[in-house]
Structures are given as structure tokens and as C-alpha cells.
Specification:
It is a single chain. With about 230 residues, the chain is an alpha/beta fold. The chain folds into 2 domains: about 150 residues, Crotonobetainyl-coa:carnitine coa-transferase, domain 1 (Rossmann fold, 3-Layer(aba) Sandwich), CATH 3.40.50; about 35 residues, no CATH class. Helices cover about 40% and strands about 15% of the residues. It has a 3-stranded parallel sheet. A two-stranded parallel sheet has the order 1-4. A two-stranded antiparallel sheet has the order 2-3. It is elongated.
């Protein structure tokens, strides 16, 4: 299997500029692009566009995360892609998907974390909402995109036709709210920030000790009874 990462300029992916660096190369970029071919194409250039079309004819999957409408402006609508390669799986990931009132809105990971409610649940009660320590919304969107691609490839074995997979980072991240989302639907009340505690389990927190903090998580009565003799 060959995976090609296509960028529009020699500078390419923004993550090439993220430190730290080893031998002049971003470790961040290497982490998320390890094993991929790097291809520079300007899809506004007719010659580069012809190269891209030839790649599409041989491809199983095309994945992109442009704002909705960008691929159409470049001349690669879903209908056009089907004409180029009827078996192509076209996977799109954007902030809010290709339909709905927010479809044209740009989005970064932190914006999606804030709008989805993840940040409202993260942090301490008397402090402002906190961004999760990793790019959670980006990762949620990626997991759902992967799942959609695999499902579409499986379906293609029977249909012999491609499919358009449309993933919204907002929708994907919203599904990771777990109990907070269900509690809001049931009660109409927004979940409260609890720090490292859990709304339904105890003890469930980070505790300071003489040398370093420890985490204790008792998820049920059996685990609680096991822990008690240690005190």
C-alpha cells in the first residue's frame, strides 16, 4: 500500500514548521506522516492537475480536509471524481461537514473542543474551561474518517462503486462527551467541571503523596473493598 501526502507548495504541511527538530526536520511532522510519500502539486496548474488525475485513476481512496466547496472550485467535485474513477472512495473531513448552517465555517481543533462541550467538562469547578491536552477533535475526526473509509471499502466489494464519506469534526467530538451528553439530554443541565474527579465514582482523583502524586480510580464496590485494607 502506498500513501501519498499531497501539499500545494514546497513548504507543504504547516506541521513541518512545528518543533522540536532533529537534523532540520520536525519530529511532529515525522510522527504524523511517517511512511508516506511527499508530493507537491499545485492543483490550479494544468500540468500538476493532470498528474493528480492520473494518481486518482489508480487510487483506492482520496482523503482531504479542505473547507467544503474547495474541491469543487479546483474542479474536483464528487461527480467529477466519479467520472475519473468510479471505484474511488472520496473521504472528506471538515469542521462541520458538507451540509448544514455551519458548513462554510472554518475550524481548528480548539474551536471544535469548545463548541462541542469537551472544554466545558474539562478543568476545575472555579476555573475557566480547559482545552484537552492533545488535539482531541482532530483525532476524533480522524478516527471517524478511518471508520467511514473502511466501511466504504467493504461496501465497494459488493457494489463495485465508490462512495463519498463526509465527516464533521464537531459531530465526531460531540459523540465523545459520554455521560455529559446523556445527562444534558435527560436533565437539561450542563455537566460541571470536576477536575480529575468522576461524577459517579469515588474515590476517583489524583492525590498528593510524600514523593509524587498518585491516581486512584475505584470504578465499583469490589475495587473499593480491595482498596480499603491498604489504608
Amino acid at each position: 500500500m502506498v500513501v501519498s501526502a499531497i501539499a500545494s507548495t514546497p513548504h507543504g504541511d504547516d506541521t513541518r514548521t512545528f518543533g522540536p527538530y532533529v537534523d532540520g526536520q520536525s519530529l511532529y511532522y515525522s510522527f504524523i506522516n511517517h511512511g508516506k510519500e511527499s508530493v507537491v502539486l499545485d492543483l490550479k496548474n494544468d500540468y500538476d492537475k493532470s498528474i493528480f488525475i492520473n494518481m486518482l485513476k489508480q487510487a483506492d481512496v482520496l482523503a482531504e480536509n479542505f473547507r467544503p466547496g474547495t474541491m469543487e472550485k479546483l474542479g474536483f467535485s464528487w461527480e467529477t471524481l466519479q467520472e475519473i474513477n468510479p471505484r474511488l472512495i472520496y473521504a472528506s473531513s471538515s469542521g462541520f461537514g458538507h451540509i448544514g448552517p455551519l458548513k462554510d465555517a472554518p475550524a481548528y481543533d480548539t474551536i471544535i473542543q469548545a463548541m462541542s462541550g469537551i472544554m466545558m467538562e474539562t478543568g476545575y469547578p472555579d476555573a475557566p474551561p480547559v482545552r484537552v491536552g492533545t488535539s482531541l477533535a482532530d483525532l476524533c475526526g480522524g478516527v471517524y474518517l478511518f471508520s467511514g473509509i473502511v466501511s466504504a471499502l467493504y461496501g465497494r466489494e459488493k457494489s463495485q462503486r465508490g462512495a463519498h464519506v463526509d465527516i464533521a469534526m464537531f459531530d465526531a467530538t460531540l459523540s465523545f462527551l459520554e455521560h455529559g451528553l446523556m445527562a444534558y439530554i435527560a436533565t437539561g443541565k450542563s455537566p460541571q467541571r470536576l477536575g480529575n474527579r468522576h461524577p459517579y465514582m469515588a474515590p476517583f482523583d489524583v492525590f498528593n503523596t510524600q514523593d509524587k502524586p498518585i491516581t486512584i480510580c475505584c470504578g465499583n464496590d469490589k475495587l473499593f473493598s480491595v482498596m480499603l485494607p491498604t489504608y
